[in-house]
Amino acid sequence: MMKRVFPVFFSVIIVICFSCNNNEVQKPAPSSNETQQLQQLKQEISKYPDSLLLVEKLIQYYREAGVYDSALAVTDNAINRAPNIAALWDIKATLHFENGDTVNAIKSFENAIQIYPLPEYVMSLGTLYAQTKNPKALTMADALTFADKAKAGKEAYFIKGLYYNYTGDKKKAIALFDSCIRLDYTYMFAYREKAIALYDQGKYEEALKVLEKAVTIQNNFDEGYYWMGNCYKKLNKKEEAIQSYHTALMYDKDFIEARDSLKTLE
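Above: the chain sequence. Below: its structure as tokens.
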């Protein structure tokens, strides 16, 4: 699947105020040291079942290990105990999103917003709506625009631009990304999406200029280098493309698409 990271609107796993029935949680098959760590953690939770920090650590353990079924099982257990806690639905949405399940991520964020419409939840849901070409993305963006306390003008422009980018109105999308950049010239995601909109129209030189500016502002922007490689490849500039993919991998060694693109050229 194409790596296209969205803005980090998604909340970091937070402290959960509920104990979990960990006997129902599927164990991963990690290294012996990780197994020992897991066993110790579960023993501590058994001893202190109301410890907020320990439950959070268990979810985070599974999350970092990539065992999302277990992380979700812990989260679902907490939600069953207290279904009206918006933060739990936020956690569940984040886990689903990271696990590639956009449909359930959207459902979970919708539940979170129904309970407590934090701007962070609105941003996350709006981004996912845009990704799935759902016009509700525009509603979410407008909600951010009118929520003065959120101070999320650039995010509102970005969500709208993302929606129009996905739905094919590249001209409108580029104008919105430009508005986003005017509010925050360091907002890398807007540069990336503007470049992609230009790339999709075959305007590779223009896309390169956008990306070159982005990596000048943030020289470790791996996605910027990746898309530069794509542009150079379209322009039949093989050596420049190879260098760009190498640079992307230097900043993210797990960038699968950059590695695959590099293999086709080398």
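Residues 202-266 form a domain with the Serine Threonine Protein Phosphatase 5, Tetratricopeptide repeat fold (CATH 1.25.40.10).
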